[in-house]
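User: Reviewer 2 asked us to show a designed sequence for the structure in our supplementary figure. I'm pasting the structure tokens here. Could you produce the per-position amino acids so we can include them in the response letter?
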């Protein structure tokens, strides 16, 4: 004990403080934030349908997918509110990028049909990049030396 006093290390007892956590009221929480959850759910379902859905699923599997999207939307809502993450803005950016890709594809298809109507059918495939089999590759017409000679 004398060594502790000499070194200046005084051990003191600390008082523990208790913090009461109020009970979580789900109804009040959803009454305040239902529109955010609905917005997240709609945007997430839209992104799923346009990007990840390869084919039409049976009704039960489709219901399970949308139930999981609804649960995931609730998790994203918690992250939006408690962690202050910009979930809604990120989903809006994803949808905006999908729109940009769709507009770009539409413009390319429109230019491809305009080229096909003016140039004829034989060059329309090469102009759109659909077929490159008729064109020889660069360097393919060169004769290779025989390794046996």
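Assistant: Here is a per-position design you can include in the supplement:
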């Amino acid at each position: 004990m004398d060594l502790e006093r000499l070194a200046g290390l005084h051990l003191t007892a600390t008082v523990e403080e208790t913090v009461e956590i109020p009970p979580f009221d789900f109804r009040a929480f959803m009454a305040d934030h239902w529109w955010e959850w609905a917005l997240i759910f709609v945007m997430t379902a839209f992104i799923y349908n346009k990007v990840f859905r390869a084919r039409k699923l049976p009704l039960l599997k489709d219901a399970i997918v949308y139930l999981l999207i609804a649960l995931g939307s609730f998790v994203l809502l918690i992250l939006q509110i408690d962690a202050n993450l910009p979930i809604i803005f990120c989903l809006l950016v994803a949808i905006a990028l999908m729109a940009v890709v769709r507009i770009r594809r539409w413009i390319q298809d429109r230019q491809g049909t305009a080229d096909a109507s003016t140039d004829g059918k034989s060059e329309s495939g090469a102009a759109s990049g659909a077929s490159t089999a008729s064109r020889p590759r660069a360097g393919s017409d060169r004769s290779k030396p025989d390794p046996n000679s």
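For the response letter, you might also mention the following. The mean pLDDT is 81. Residues 35-110 form one domain.
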